[in-house]
Amino acid sequence: MWNALVTGGAGFLGSHLSRLLLDQGHSVVVLDDLSTGSFTNLPDHPRLTKVKGDVARGWEGKVDRIYHLACPASPPKYQIDPVKTLDTNYQGTRNMLELALRSGARLLLTSTSEIYGDPQVSPQAETYWGNVNTFGPRSCYDEGKRVAESLCYAYSRYRQADVRVARIFNTYGPFMAPDDGRVVTNFISQALEGKPITIYGSGNQTRSLCYVDDLIRGLNLLMESTSPPVDAPVNLGNPNEMTIRQIAELVLELTGSNSPLIECPLPQDDPKQRCPDISRAYEWLGWRPMVSARDGIKRTCDYFEGALRLS
Ligand SMILES: NC(=O)c1ccc[n+]([C@@H]2O[C@H](COP(=O)([O-])OP(=O)(O)OC[C@H]3O[C@@H](n4cnc5c(N)ncnc54)[C@H](O)[C@@H]3O)[C@@H](O)[C@H]2O)c1
After folding, report:
1. Counts for the chain of helices (H) and strands (E), in that order
2. What CATH number is attached to the domain comprising 222?
3. Whole domain around residue 183: which residue ranges?
4. Which of 269, 267, 264 is nearest to 248 (CA)?
5. How far does the centroid of ligand 1 lie from the alpha carbon of residue 272, in Å?
6. Domain count, the chain
7. What is the pLDDT of residues 167-185, one digit of tens each?
8. Catalytic site includes residue 141
């Protein structure tokens, strides 16, 4: 059994991951500054320790596994303080890599499909180097994650750190913050509250949505896999591409809402197309997503309906 550190463990993905690790019998420390997450997303459990702290300031302890998730993922949230977002990604990742070396721990970084920017090829394989704006409003996140990846491989090549890098594509599910500004949460909250559904641009831009249980299973497999050697980034996401308009229509159908669809201007640097090539994840980990968009969005709508009733 492992002593696992989950940075950002009070957030959406981190809380699901922490529950999976507890279910597997491991001990878990969650280190989170609570900037976009909440300890209420986590259970009380004898093998779970919750620590409030900033990864950019470091942490001391003895662990075997470091799942390094700490970083706001939603554009409105990471743009509130872009310098902090860069610090979290650079200094925070450096601190966690140093901790990994001191502890002899393996570290998994949750990178992102945003490192591909507004891609000129589709689907995006790990061999594509991306089309990223270095100074636009999203650059603090996109470039922050790119330098976090570079740090992982610099520590791996020159200091023998044991690292894994997952490039996560759009993931959704229960425990997302209803106000986080990401497409699925926006649409579900608007539909359940009977407000107009805001479609940015024509709605013909595509996203491919992965349900959280599939994604977390992939992170866990990537962390524990040793054969073949997992020495390069791995895309994790669902290649089933849908237009933004199709996602909105599915949410309306599953919530039974009559909210109208309204078009709003497209935000700067919004990617027009996102679709993962997951051949590497299948070849190296035997991983592929199992939950359909209809099932996943239904489960998420049910969760938000319950959460709204309680609020
Ligand atoms: N959800 C997705 O679709 C998606 C896609 C690509 C990548 N990711 C990556 O996965 C990770 C988790 O994303 P999420 O969707 O759960 O986001 P989230 O915002 O729900 O969770 C992030 C967590 O990190 C914490 N945090 C932020 N800065 C911190 C700091 N400096 N020190 C300590 N804690 C800090 C927040 O309080 C929060 O609990 C992020 O690294 C994100 O970039 C997520």
Report:
1. 9, 13
2. 3.40.50.720
3. 3-310
4. 264
5. 23
6. 1
7. 999 999 999 988 888 899 9
8. yes
